[in-house]
Every structure is written in structure tokens, then in C-alpha cells.
Design brief:
The chain is about 80% helix and about 0% strand. With about 130 residues, it is mainly alpha-helical.
């Protein structure tokens, strides 16, 4: 997939996003492979367990970097509003799920799934916010 936008900030964000997700995929493979085959312990186990989270933290920094580089106030507003809707939907979904876990014993939501859930809601909200202005 090629980013076809003429907006330089959006193009840089897209390329950085792809690079970060590639690093995330490599980190996941390294961590899973290491725990399945080598059974690390001690400090190494902690480092390997945290390894896949580092690209996620980098992704959060990329959000801020994009907002600081984007010259178009309208595009920044759409991006920010989409992020807020995504955050709100994630908070609502995880809160409801937490109560369901406590009271009716639905399966436990693994915390590492919260960021992908946020990205899902952010993507939906981004499409809806952009639709509103067409």
C-alpha cells in the first residue's frame, strides 16, 4: 500500500506508522519465539516481555509528532477529534467489559488488546468524522 496524499505531514506519519508496526511485528516474533523456545528468566524475561510494548509507546509519540508537524488546522482538528472519539469508545468498552467480567464472568480482556481496540475505534471515528465534512 502506498500513501497517495499530497500532505507531507500525513505522508511522513503514514511511513512512520508502517515502520513502527513493522518493528512491532518483529518484536512480537522475537518475544514469543524466545518465551516458547528458550524460557527466559530474570531480567531478560522482563526485557523480552516489555519489548513489544516499546513500538506501541513510539506510536503514541508519533501521534503527537504528527500533530506538531501538521500545518493544516482543519486536518489537526479532524485527527484530534477522531482520537478523542476513539479514546472515549475505548474507555466505554473496557469499562463495560470490566463490569461484565466482575458480575457475569465473561472472558478476561487481556490488557495488551486495549491499544488495538483503541486503533479500531479511532479508525472508525476517523472515517465518520471525515464523512461529516464531505
Amino acid at each position: 500500500m502506498i500513501c497517495t496524499t499530497n500532505n507531507p505531514a500525513a505522508r511522513r506519519f503514514f511511513l512512520r506508522f508502517l515502520a513502527t508496526m513493522l518493528v512491532y511485528a518483529v518484536c512480537i516474533v522475537i518475544a514469543v519465539w524466545s518465551f516458547v523456545h528458550n524460557h527466559p528468566t530474570g531480567v531478560l524475561a522482563y526485557l523480552l516481555a516489555v519489548l513489544p510494548a516499546l513500538p506501541i509507546v513510539a506510536m503514541l509519540a508519533l501521534f503527537g509528532l504528527y500533530l506538531s508537524e501538521e500545518k493544516d488546522e482543519f486536518q489537526r482538528a479532524i485527527f484530534t477529534e477522531s482520537m478523542l472519539w476513539g479514546t472515549g469508545a475505548t474507555l466505554a468498552a473496557t469499562t463495560v467489559w470490566g463490569f461484565l467480567e466482575n458480575f457475569v464472568h465473561v472472558p478476561h480482556l487481556q490488557l495488551f488488546l486495549v491499544f488495538p481496540l483503541y486503533c479500531f475505534f479511532w479508525g472508525i471515528s476517523s472515517s465518520l468524522v471525515q464523512l461529516r465534512y464531505k
